[in-house]
Amino acid sequence: MLSKDFDFEKSIKELEKIAASLENEQITLDESIALFEKGVKLSKDCSEYLESAKQKIITLTEKESEDNG
Amino acid sequence: MLNTITVSQLNTYVKSLVENDPRLTFVNVSGEISNFKNHFSSGHWYFTLKDQNASIRCVMFRSSASRVRFQVEDGLAVVIKGRVSIYEKDGQYQFYAEEMHPIGEGDLALQFKQVKEKLEKEGLFDVTSKRPLPRFPKKIAVITSDTGAAVRDILNITNTRYPACEIVMCSVLVQGDMAASDMIKTLDRVYALNDIDVIIIGRGGGSAEDLHCFNDEALARKIYESPFPVISAVGHETDFSISDFVADIRASTPSHAAELAVPDMRELKNHIDSITNLLKSKITYKYDFYYNKLNSLDSKVSPTNVSRVVQNKQIDVDRIFDKMENRIKFILQKNANSASGLASRIDALSPLKVMARGFSAVSKDNKYITNTDKLNVGDNITVEFYDGNIDCTITDKKCK
């Protein structure tokens, strides 16, 4: 179950960054494993986010614009 | 003698003649506009229509003028439809225009061209003011009719591609005279929200007349003001509207707008899968790299290597052993020498050696006597020599 404030964009960007970091020959095996574990978690969360999403439609009403305005 | 009539009577009479001529009550006249004046308070238009040889004064009342879509200006060639009459106050004969159409092109086409030129000149179409769309929008405002095909297409496509995005449905009129002002009002309300990522504004296909509200100048300016990126999607691929030029991006159809607005979930899933596979291959590579490194270290301590190391160490040990042996021998030799010297010194101090030099020892009752105090005349003593003893009796005693 994803937390409510799960940020898909942030997560997928981080995942992309981790993939790039693992290309780096300089990082140690320990660091690589830590990055790998984090990446796998992010990838799982991102997939879950996409699969569990249900389209939400709200209607802009006069009332709402007054409330927000 | 003829009857005398007043000026008013004359003008009224001529006016009635003109107005009762059916050929002058419904007439189309073509010409070029000059001296055009839009009366600021009444909203009536006053102008002269002329050709190469003649001219006529014209008036167009506000109710009629407001229906003219294009911008009227001097030099414009038009056809006006209306009636001829007399303005009794000054006896001016003039044309009362009820409709006006440009010559050579349609009203809407002319209006489109005029608004486009004007806004383009002001820089509202500049590429530099276009904003990119966000990669993963969370909330999209859809401004269109809630009954048309457009809203159905947009909701279906966004739901299939990326259901994670919330839709704010803003139903508006998308044709007719009220449409532009309705959309402007709705845009203002959407602008007041602070969490909109993208706006889609548009409608499905229709006649040029139906789509015309999207060429409205005020609507175009309102779209240009948007704090959020706007996708304009009006009609079919071939339809261009002014809103397309001021929006951040033009979509050829409402369906296309939905595709532009949200990413495709299937592609995203593939993207995530490929990153995950990349992670796996990278970690495997890393593991192999260290595994091979370990193996190469292992081969460095193979049996042949070990025996060589041991042999080298053996030589070292042998050398050290030799050194130690020599050292021990040296110490033992040194100590042996000093021991024999000591023995001869001890020997020299032996009492037997002293006695051999002529000294003798006196004892009484088996105790050695070192002075005369304990001896008295008549005591029996023993005198020891190095080669034997003699027993004696004291006959005299002399003390020092």
Question: Strand fraction band of chain A?
Answer: under 5%
Percent strand of chain B equals: 15-25%
Rounded mean pLDDT of chain B is: 89
Radius of gyration of chain B: 65 Å
Q: Could you name the CATH class of the largest domain in chain B?
A: Alpha Beta
Straight-line distance between termini of chain B: 218 Å
Largest sheet of chain B: 5 strands, mixed, barrel
Q: Which H/E pattern describes the elements of chain B? A: HHEEEHEEHEHEHEHHEHEHHHHEEEE
Order of helices and strands of chain A: HHEH
Query: Got a strand count of chain A?
Result: 1
What is the secondary structure topology, with strand pairs?
The complex is a heterodimer of chains A (69) and B (400).
Chain A lengths: L7 H14 L7 H24 L4 E3 L2 H7 L1
Chain B lengths: L6 H13 L2 H4 L1 E12 L6 E6 L4 E6 L1 H4 L11 E11 L4 E11 L4 H16 L16 E6 L4 H13 L4 E6 L7 H14 L5 E6 L4 H4 L5 H8 L5 E5 L7 H5 L2 E3 L2 H8 L3 H36 L2 H46 L2 H6 L4 E4 L2 E2 L11 E6 L2 E6 L7
Give an overview in words.
The complex is a heterodimer of chains A (69) and B (400). By secondary structure, chain A is mainly α. Chain A has one domain. Chain A has helices at residues 8-21, 29-52, 62-68, and one strand at 57-59. In chain A, helix 1 (8-21) packs antiparallel against helix 2 (29-52). Chain A is elongated and about 55 Å long. Chain B is of the alpha/beta class and 400 residues long. Chain B folds into four domains: 7-104, OB fold (Dihydrolipoamide Acetyltransferase, E2P) (Beta Barrel), CATH 2.40.50; 111-123 and 134-263, Rossmann fold (3-Layer(aba) Sandwich); 307-349; 353-393, no CATH class. Chain B contains 13 helices and 14 strands. A five-stranded mixed barrel of chain B has the order 1-2-3-5-4. The longest helix of chain B is centred in the last third of the chain and has 46 residues, at 303-348. Chain B is rod-shaped and about 230 Å long. At the A-B interface, helix 1, helix 2 and strand 1 of A face helix 5, strand 7, helix 6 and helix 11 of B.
